[in-house]
Amino acid sequence: RLKQMLCILGKNCDFISEPLATAENSGSLLTKDTTRTASMATQEASGDDVCPFCQIADKQTNTEILFSQDEELLCFRDVKPGAETHFLVVTRRHIDNCRMLQTQHIPLVERMVEVARSVLEENKVHNSEDNRMGFHLPPFTSVPHLHLHVLCPASKMNVRAQLRYGPQSHWFITVNKVLSQLKTSGKVK
User: Fold this and answer.
1) Structural domain of residue 160, as residue ranges?
2) Which stretch carries the motif Histidine triad motif (predicted)?
3) Residue 86 annotated among the catalytic residues of the structure
4) In the chain, what is the straight-line distance between the N-terminal and C-terminal CA atoms, in Å?
């Protein structure tokens, strides 16, 4: 009932009192991850705290979409680019951040990389191999919704972008490291 009320209010309510479909029974790469409790959903519904990436996924904004031919992912430009080319590959379903990922999400993360490479190719990005792909670690996430940053050319990022996305950043983890951790320990550390 709470889920129905939240849906009427236009809130993202996919995670209330129902587990997500599993990969085995739905063909989906998304599985149970950040199931929201009724109290969390009520808090979201009562406040102004609406996820902007969920709004983009639900076509509630006029954001230019670079990729949307997928039931699970979409891609759009970062509003504060850290490189000449900077876009985000985002899950359509709300997953809070990379720390919520588990072993069963490996195919999802791999698909995010495939989409990123495809968008780089489709947009004829020069030096597309000179890229930086990864996630911000909480609590340093700008939007609490899983999104893969894709920056290119990485070698020409300015000092500020290097601090946020570069190899020395303590709050940015590369997609390769995420995949490695998921494969070895089943979670992102």
Assistant:
1) 51-185
2) 145-149
3) no
4) 36
Number of H helices, E strands in the chain: 7, 6
Higher pLDDT, 43 or 184: 184
The pLDDT-based confidence of 49 (bands split at 50, 70, 90) is low
φ, ψ for residue 66, nearest 5 deg? -90, -25
Beta-carbon contacts of residue 8 (< 8 Å; ≥ 6 apart)? none
Reduced to 3 states (helix: H, G, I; strand: E, B; else coil), residue 184 is helix
Helix (H) or strand (E) holding 9: none
> What CATH number did the domain enclosing 57 receive?
3.30.428.10
- In angstroms, rounded to a whole number, what is the distance separating the alpha carbons of residues 136 and 113? 16
Give residue 64's Cα distance to chain centre.
17
Domain count, the chain: 1
**In-domain check, residue 17:** no
Catalytic residue of the set 145, 147, 149, 170: 147
107 cis-preceded (ω within 30 degrees of 0):
no
Query: Above 60 in pLDDT, residue 79?
Result: yes
Taking every pair of C-alpha atoms in the chain, what is the biggest distance, in angstroms?
Answer: 52
pLDDT per residue as tens digits for the range 126-177: 889 999 999 999 999 999 999 999 999 999 999 999 999 999 999 999 999 9
